[in-house]
Amino acid sequence: MPAMAAENPATADQVARPGGTLPGNPRIALVRVAEGFQDPTNVANANDGTGRIFVTERVGRIRLVNRDGTVQQDPFLDLTNFNPLGTDVQTGFVEQGLYSVAFHPRFRENGYFFVHYASLPFNGDGVILRLQVDRANPNVVSAERIRETAKVIMRIEQPYYNHNGGQIEFGPDGFLYIGSGDGGWEGDPLQAGQDLNTWLGKLLRIDVDVPEDDGRAYRIPRENPFASAAREQLMTLFGITEKQFAQIRTRAKPEIFAYGLRNPYEFSFDRRTGDIYIADVGQNHWEEIDWIPAGSRGGQNFGWSHMQGSFCHPMTGPNDQCPTIGLLPVAQYPHEEAYPGAPKQSEGSGCSAQGLGVANDLGPQSLYLVGDWCSGRVFGIAWDDSARRWQMRELLRTNLQFTAGGYDEDGNVMAVNANNFYIGEQGATQNPPGSLWRVVAADRVPQGAVTARTAAPQGQQPPAQPAAAPAQPGQPRQAR
């Protein structure tokens, strides 16, 4: 019997929540690959055959991890010292800094890679910068090399110091995708999520492969849903359909691929199918996971700020009634307080969804993994063909503060954790160090590997682990 294609939920009761049954009943573990990173914010690979892994640090550096797990002493990239006036990266608030790195699909040929960071000279605006490695020294991009090759692709104005999004990633179509938050504060005071006249609150898509003498930093893919929505044209009142009228958006930004997002700090492509999963960080009560199937023409509206997950925004109680705006998420999980005044719940809750990546070798194909920043939980989300619905289950509960994920060159899902929070923030270079982890099947942990300390996931028995010494405040505990 052929598999049924996954689809977006049509009603709120079809949105997956923790407690479901994942196909294949996957069990996972986190194996430590390297440690000692200062507020790591992203992990990526160059897909160039070297097996290198690149970890971005909030302060403005990229650390290079060799295939054997050793960390190169000198940073691969350092944005804190190429400017004679000091660092180029704004880190004054915990949500600011160097967000991510993406390597060009033809990096092996052209040496191009891209970074997204909060710019100090531009008062925290997001700068997307293209750089090029020196073939004679591919493991270190010197300050001189930065000045020689830097090309600003985009600057995203940030009115506040939070909800900046940050993830950049090349899709299977070769275009660069950019996660952009709603600009900050709380409750989307700019109404950016639904406003097509701003890049804020969106997933953007651009073509960076433009000739050097073109004079433009990027082009708009012709397939973008709003690529020509704002083009100048004669006004016609009769003779065209309502659908044609609805495609006219005179103020729409052509870079927009999807909208109605609050803070898509991490999104992931399924390396097998090309589907997009977006971990959209919620506000006070719910975290949501959005999904775009491969080959989509884009234009999805995920509802923010009219909706928070499948719920009304703002929430006032458990029985709020409102029309559903946009597409429903495929999965969602609550904060400890699921609505104002709700009883506190400890099972299956969190506070900030950090997408890790899509695993295709841990049970079900296309198992999307999400790590929560506050609770240390790892959730698995997958389409259940037999039930014809999405399922979500807690797979691990760790003491790690997840910040991001990515892939190594073999396609394994990677994760990084930091040790920072709004209260007690010591600064991008003073917080206790974080680590880099690889997700593996629980029965394939290498002998002698250090694994993340875990408690029993919801509905499961705790794994057998040797005792570990109590952790110092803000530092993870691990068991060998």
Helical segment count: 3
Distance between the termini: 44 Å
The residue-averaged pLDDT reads 93
Widest sheet: strand ordering: 20-21-22-23-28
Main β-sheet description: 5 strands, antiparallel
Radius of gyration, whole Å? 22 Å
Dominant shape: globular
Estimate percent helicity: under 10%
The stretches of 5 or more residues where confidence is low (pLDDT under 50) are 462-480
Structural class: mainly beta
How large is the share of residues in beta strands?
25-35%
Quick one: how many beta strands?
A: 29
Please give the structural blueprint:
Blueprint: E1 28-37, E2 40-45, E3 53-57, E4 61-65, E5 77-78, E6 98-103, H1 107-110, E7 112-118, E8 126-132, H2 143-149, E9 151-156, E10 168-170, E11 176-180, E12 202-206, H3 242-246, E13 256-259, E14 266-269, E15 276-280, E16 286-292, E17 307-308, E18 311-312, E19 331-334, E20 353-359, E21 367-372, E22 377-384, E23 389-398, E24 401-407, E25 413-418, E26 434-441, E27 451-452, E28 454-455, E29 478-479
Antiparallel strand pairs: 1-26, 2-3, 3-4, 4-5, 6-7, 7-8, 8-9, 10-11, 11-12, 12-13, 14-15, 15-16, 16-19, 17-18, 20-21, 21-22, 22-23, 23-28, 24-25, 25-26, 27-29
Can you describe this structure?
It is built from three helices and 29 strands. It has 480 residues and is mainly β. The protein starts with 27 loop residues before the first strand and ends with a strand. A hairpin with a 5-residue loop joins strand 10 (168-170) and strand 11. The protein has a five-stranded antiparallel beta sheet, with no helix packed on it. Strands 1-26-25-24 form a four-stranded antiparallel beta sheet, with no helix packed on it. A four-stranded antiparallel beta sheet has the order 2-3-4-5, with no helix packed on it. Mean pLDDT is 93; it is low at 462-480. The relative contact order is 0.17. It has helices spanning 107-110, 143-149, 242-246, and strands at residues 28-37, 40-45, 53-57, 61-65, 77-78, 98-103, 112-118, 126-132, 151-156, 168-170, 176-180, 202-206, 256-259, 266-269, 276-280, 286-292, 307-308, 311-312, 331-334, 353-359, 367-372, 377-384, 389-398, 401-407, 413-418, 434-441, 451-452, 454-455, 478-479.
